[in-house]
Amino acid sequence: MKKVRKFKVGKFLLFLLLLIIVLILIAIGIYKYETSPVSNNTDPKIITVDEGDNYFTIASKLKEQNLIRSETFYKIYLKFASPSSLLNGDYELNEAMSVRDIVKVLSDKDSSKNSTIKLTFREGLNITQMAKIVEEKTNIKSSEFINKIADKTYLEELQNDYWFLTDDIYNSEIYYPLEGYLYPDTYHFLPSEIDIDTIIRKILDNTEEKLNPYKNQLQNGTYKVHQILTLASIVELEAVSDSDRAMVAGVLYNRLNDGWSLGCDATTYYAAKKSMTERLTQSDLTACNGYNTRCTSMIGLPVGPIDNPSISSIKAALEPTKNDYYYFVADTNKKVYFTKNANEHDQIIAKLKDEGIWAA
To answer: Which of 70, 80, 89, 244 could form a disulfide with 112 if both were Cys (CB 3.0 to 4.6 A apart)?
Structure first.
């Protein structure tokens, strides 16, 4: 009986040992896969390490850029690797790099591309504001930037490469033909890439990527790409939250459908070439041109966008919230109030004035 018992115990231990070995091999296989390259794509991607970042906090950035398969296994690798401290700066990585390769680049003191030039354009900036940022960060003068993107021969070259640039941009009343088409984002350039054409094309490449999912709507809808970007640019400056943007877009469509003027101050500022921190004069409000929708004789959309809108505002213009409102006003806290008629609208404004929160 003892021999049989010993035999069974020995067999069980052998089975347990084999099971452990198999589980270890499976775990190693999973670990190797999860820390392997995401793809064979060697196109460079720039990862920015900001002040206060460390190897663990940038895991989400690496995942968002599709540079690692798993944040968890990336962090497990770090526990074993214990790399040297991480320096601030821009690092050039690609999807064909394994987690080991990525950490090696990040830990290499000479890999940080501190010479990379970063251009950040926030949502709602217009071309003159963007041109000033280019001038501040590069050796390109804002006037050179603006003149280049107003050159018809250059615009025709761009038209051949980007489906969303239509002949609408050549309207003689338009201030800047590419207004609305330069997607607001952060862009990284090596010093050798700092020329106007490279900058513009990198931005337009991003614009194309953002618009491609909506290509059919933008080409075949009631309102085409130029009109949608124009509407989105107004929405961008009139609302903050995504829900408010969709509501504002709905109000603007109600006015368009019923043949009303849009009456948006944002268009008046642009028409007068004033920033929205400046005061509008009575002549600004009544001046009639291709942009000022406060001019009572102007029905419909402006001739073109008044800024460069975010994808949220573009989505709102494509998919507005249907409502029966015709007026809206925002307070100093950016809260938007919607009303159905002029009387209700005036009552809201009076209330906001009394409370000292009217965004005049």
So the answer is: 89
Do 75 and 171 reside in the same domain of the chain?
A: no
- Tokens matching residue 124: 């709602």
Q: Residue 46: which H helix or E strand, with range?
A: strand 45-49
Residue 331 lies in a domain: yes
pLDDT of amino acid 120: 93
Which residues, at least 6 apart from 31, have a Cβ–Cβ distance to it below 8 Å? 73, 76
| Angstrom distances, CA of residue 60 to CA of 45, 74, 219, 268, 356 | 15, 10, 35, 41, 42
With respect to residue 29, please indicate whether it lies within any of the assigned structural domains.
no
Tell me, yes or no, whether 231 and 349 share the same domain: yes
- Which residues have CB under 8 Å from 101's CB, separation 6+? 37
Q: What is the pLDDT of residue 115?
A: 55
Report yes or no on 176 lying in a domain: yes
Q: What six digits make up the tokens of 309?
A: 């809108």
pLDDT at 358: 77
Instruction: Assign residue 329 a region (left: φ > 0; alpha: ψ between -120 and 50; beta: otherwise).
Output: beta
pTM for this predicted structure:
0.73
176 and 296: one domain?
no
H or E element, residue 117: strand 117-120
**Tally of structural domains, the chain:** 3
Q: Comparing C-alpha atoms, which of 165, 30, 222 is closest to residue 157?
A: 165
User: Which residues constitute the domain of residue 96?
Assistant: 45-107
Contact 241, 247 (CB under 8 A): no
Q: Which residues contact 112 (CB under 8 A, 6 or more apart)?
A: 49, 87, 88, 89, 90, 91
For 193-204, what is each residue's pLDDT tens digit?
A: 899 999 999 999
Give residue 123's pLDDT. Answer: 96
Instruction: Specify whether the CB–CB gap between 33 and 98 falls below 8 A.
Output: no
Give 10-residue mean pLDDT values along the chain (360 residues). Answer: 59 80 84 89 86 88 93 89 80 90 82 70 96 93 96 97 97 97 92 90 97 96 96 94 94 96 93 89 89 88 97 97 93 89 92 83
Determine the pLDDT at residue 147. 97
The one-letter amino acid at 21: I
